[in-house]
Amino acid sequence: MEKTELRQSGIATLKKLAEQPKKKAKKEEMILALFFASRIWKEANVIGMIRSTPFEFNTEPIMQRAWAENKRVVVPKSLPKRQLAFYEVDARTAYRTTKFGVDEPISALHVSKEEIDVLLVPGIIFSKDGYRIGFGGGFYDRYLAEYKGRTCSLIFSEQLNNDWQHDSFDLPVARIFTDTFKGVTYE
């Protein structure tokens, strides 16, 4: 299957899971427990993440916990030439929704790549080796090419699929947290 077909199928699967809020919440709770118990979380002071859409893994509890533990949260804005820049946010930050349906912070508090301890990388489909199929813009691939901090993704088992070939320019995330351990590599 081509990446475009996998992406469309993956989005449909995520939307179907979102129609089962109790099941989705239970999976998220399990994944969050693993993530919050990890060294990645415990050692991080600055955490980069998206503000999730309703069918994606809910990042709001991560933000809330980060602020409660005095960690800094940074959220990306898209720039020209499919680039990303991250900006610090707090509970009072306002957002604007882009034409892609993504919430971007209205913030001038830019945070450099070097300051971000861990980046929660979004995606639609993931291989057991951490390669991902995102939404197709290449924003994260470009950012990850120069990012030296830790990377991970919090995903539902429904997003795991090894029946595709990653491209030479694709960069895997170092760790996947999911509601099943079958075939997933850890750092």
Supply the key terms.
5-formyltetrahydrofolate cyclo-ligase, single chain, metal ion binding, NagB/RpiA_transferase-like, 7-stranded mixed β-sheet, two-stranded antiparallel ribbon, magnesium, 5 helices, disordered C terminus, ATP-binding, 187 residues, 11 strands, Rossmann fold, alpha/beta
What can you tell me about this protein's structure?
The chain has helices at 3-18, 21-37, 39-43, 60-68, 139-144; strands at 46-48, 72-79, 83-89, 95-97, 103-105, 110-111, 118-120, 125-126, 132-133, 150-155, 175-178. Helices cover 28% and strands 23% of the residues. It is globular and about 40 Å long. It has a domain at 3-75 and 114-135 and 146-178: Rossmann fold (3-Layer(aba) Sandwich), CATH 3.40.50.10420. A hairpin with a 3-residue loop joins strand 2 (72-79) and strand 3 (83-89). Residues 182-187 have low confidence and may be disordered. The protein is of the alpha/beta class and 187 residues long. The two termini are 28 Å apart. Substrate binds at residue 56. InterPro entries: FTHF_cligase, FTHF_cligase-like_sf, NagB/RpiA_transferase-like. One of its GO terms (molecular function) is metal ion binding. Belongs to the 5-formyltetrahydrofolate cyclo-ligase family.
